[in-house]
Q: What sequence folds into this?
């Protein structure tokens, strides 16, 4: 397509989809794509998230999270992405920068070929889940904007069926825990981090100030399957809804026994990465926790959710501490999951984006195209 034709299409609004088909010949999708002259350009910059509270899990405490913010620019449209890299997962701004420097998107002419482009990105090096997700998310955002549709529409999911998100209460002194629970009164489900000496005390402390639904995340903290089963029976009496990663990810036989006997659903988190782990989790856990930063992004996350549902497993959607960019990306999948833990952006004080929000504890998708972001 030459420049005159291209300018004509632009002037008449055909490239933006505003004109009626039939007013110009040969408006097939492939012709419109060929008409785009741009190259995809990937750029990235490090950013440090400041957490509102010190965040403590069974193995560590911290006050910041390093992330990498990405952009893919194509024909004047910009898609936004993000890699969030809590230190215990092994990626860093340095590894992400090294990985992203190797990504050459200019070899592709058609951003719609997500499958081929993302297979290439995945093949550059093993691991690097968060860095790969930062490309995947930016590409999805770009393509959604080119189509002028939000991803829940492109995937065919009902935006009203979003779940309530849980809100995480970290391990702390009883006074601080009670204070955090009171602050979290908009949430319909709270997530409690267990896996230390004071597990029962944590639950009793929270139950002394609220009757809201609770789920627990043990972060592999229970070593003995009989003790774990006793705890789960006790937790069920306290109104707990499900138990995330009760035992070490390597305790496969014990975990299968626990799930078989457990009165509450068990969810694989540390044991879950990508598609192969979904197959391994079948028969071992009741469900899986999908996180974009571990599974390389929206495309694989959607496949994992579809696969787990087909296997009769529960699906939970989780996150790291992330900006509204990665949280919004995940939220487009949330209408089809059983539980969501998408509180990551609520835990930080310097979110550079506005996107999917949480209102009275419910995940609220907006109508903007792509992943629905606005830069602050
Ligand atoms: Mg977890």
A:
């Amino acid at each position: 397509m030459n420049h005159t034709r291209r300018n004509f299409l632009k002037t008449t609004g055909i490239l933006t989809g505003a004109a009626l088909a039939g007013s110009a010949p040969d408006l097939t999708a492939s012709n419109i794509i060929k008409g785009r002259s741009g190259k995809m350009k990937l750029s990235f910059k490090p950013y440090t998230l400041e957490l509102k509270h010190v965040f403590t899990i069974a193995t560590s405490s911290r006050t910041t999270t390093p992330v990498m913010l990405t952009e893919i620019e194509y024909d004047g449209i910009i898609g936004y992405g993000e890699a969030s890299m809590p230190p215990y997962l092994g990626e860093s701004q340095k590894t992400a920068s090294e990985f992203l420097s190797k990504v050459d998107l200019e070899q592709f002419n058609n951003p719609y070929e997500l499958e081929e482009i993302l297979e290439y990105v995945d093949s550059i090096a093993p691991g690097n889940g968060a860095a790969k997700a930062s490309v995947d998310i930016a590409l999805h955002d770009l393509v959604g904007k080119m189509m002028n549709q939000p991803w829940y529409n492109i995937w065919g999911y009902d935006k009203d069926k979003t779940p309530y998100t849980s809100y995480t209460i970290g391990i702390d002194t009883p006074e601080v825990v009670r204070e955090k629970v009171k602050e979290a009164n908009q949430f319909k489900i709270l997530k409690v981090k267990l896996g230390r000496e004071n597990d029962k005390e944590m639950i009793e402390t929270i139950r002394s100030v609220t009757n809201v639904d609770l789920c627990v995340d043990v972060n592999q903290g229970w070593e003995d399957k009989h003790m774990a089963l006793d705890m789960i029976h006790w937790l069920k009496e306290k109104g707990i809804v499900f138990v995330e990663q009760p035992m070490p990810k390597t305790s496969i036989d014990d975990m299968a026994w626990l799930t078989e006997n457990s009165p509450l659903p068990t969810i694989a988190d540390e044991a879950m990465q990508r598609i192969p782990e979904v197959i391994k989790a079948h028969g071992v856990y009741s469900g899986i926790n999908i996180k974009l930063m571990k599974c390389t992004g929206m495309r694989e996350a959607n496949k994992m959710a579809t696969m787990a549902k087909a296997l009769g497993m529960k699906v939970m959607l989780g996150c790291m501490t992330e900006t509204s960019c990665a949280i919004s990306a995940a939220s487009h999948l949330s209408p089809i999951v059983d539980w969501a833990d998408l509180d990551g952006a609520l835990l930080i004080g310097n979110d550079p984006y506005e996107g999917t929000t949480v209102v009275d504890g419910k995940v609220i998708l907006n109508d903007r195209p792509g992943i629905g972001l606005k830069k602050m």
